[in-house]
Amino acid sequence: LPSADAALEEAVVEVIDHRPLEGQRPAGCQVTAAPVGSCATLVTERIAQGPPGVLDRLTAALLHGTILLDCVNLSPAAGKVTPRDVACVALLEERFPELPARDALFEALQAAKFDVSGLTTEQMLRKDLKVVHGGDLLLAISGIYVTLETFLQRPNLLQDLEAFCQARGYLGLVAMTISYSEQKEPCRQLAVYSQHHSLRSTVCQALEEATTPSLHLQPLPSPWPCLVAYTQGNNLASRKKVLPIVRAAL
């Protein structure tokens, strides 16, 4: 839970997640954690095992769309989908054949997810935000849905990054951009921003030297010394795989 809700940790009775769990769970807390492409897959499996009335058409539509979006329309090239994700999509479509066609649904959801027109820089940074703790140190990791070149050209970006970090107590920020080719293959870039040289160097070194997985980073030109930019050769290394690298560095 976020630090502001830490007092509620003892009230957690069950965790379902597709990411590695942080910290210890309270005694008696049931945990379901598996490296599937979408957490909605684990939820679908749980609901499918329960009373038949729980899985109605609306619930099925929500789960179906979420799994397709998280797993990039079940495309193996994106490196996210697992057999359990595929099985749950098939199960939902079998029980509710009136669900929208996969391709049309995915294209509509993907277009909405990547539509950042009209958003301020602060809103783009908050749209898909994770925070990594290293003692009292906080580092933000934001998913950005435009190319890094486009992001760096936003007016007043440096001032906006500093204001965003100062307002929330972050000592730095990692912006992970993603875009997709027409073949649904991801293109990833990232930038490390901090006014603190030692933190910036520590995070950059950890990302450059990472081996589990290797990110295959190549430097890109940066307009400011406080921001280091890279293109990421390993396009299958999503933020879920980068988070542990940053956490270990902190």
From TrEMBL:
This is PRUN1 Exopolyphosphatase. PANTHER family: BNIP - RELATED, EXOPOLYPHOSPHATASE PRUNE1. Belongs to the PPase class C family. Prune subfamily. It comes from the Eukaryota. It comes from Indicator maculatus (spotted honeyguide). GO terms for cellular component: cytoplasm. The lineage of its organism: Eukaryota, Metazoa, Chordata, Craniata, Vertebrata. Residues 106-250 form the DHHA2 domain. InterPro entries: DHH_sf, DHHA2, DHHA2_dom_sf. The gene is Prune1. GO terms for molecular function: exopolyphosphatase activity. Pfam families: DHHA2.
